[in-house]
Amino acid sequence: MHYKVRQGDSMSSLARKHGFCWESIWHHPENDQLKQKRGNPDILYPGDQVFIPALTQKEEIIETEQRHRFVVKGRISTLKLMLEYNDTVLADTRCCLAVDGHWLEANTNSDGLLEARVSSSAKGIHLLVFPKIDNIPTVINWEISVGHLNPKDEIAGVQQRLANLGYYESKIDGVLGPQLLSAIRIFQTVNKLETTGELDSATMDKLVALYGC
Fold first, then answer.
1. pTM for this one?
2. Right CATH number for 2-51 from 3.10.350.10, 1.20.1050.10, 1.10.3720.10, 3.30.70.360?
């Protein structure tokens, strides 16, 4: 069957919903064109077409009166976030995450990277960060929408990345309007790029490098 991607879908969440590990769908020959276009299985765009194959039955021959272990893949994904506040990297900082009604604790590393294993079906995460840095709140609240990041080659994806980096404050509408053009110029100036106001290759490369994807 062909599935039309909705906002918030990722290959991990679709695979779990349909009973697969994500690799089985992503690497299916019917999805080669999508794979070439998007590059990242967890950054899809509303309207993308994903081919989902039919489930097949697998048989295993096992001995009786023995204990056997079967592992279901694709239930857990790794969430990675780089945490900064007002240009300050939140390194070695305690964090708490509320995922599907359960609280997890984790710490950022020396570069401000937070990694946590979460359910592949998670859509929203409430993140509490507890910095111990002067002039920064003792508790920071962030709401994380999992699977909602649009591809970098879509205008909405550019808006999201600039917004998360603090350059863009208007709505995410996929329109290359005055606010976005202004944000692009500011981004170029801050990062010592030619201030063209255009999404040229140097600007896109820098945006992706800073954002991480």
1. 0.77
2. 3.10.350.10
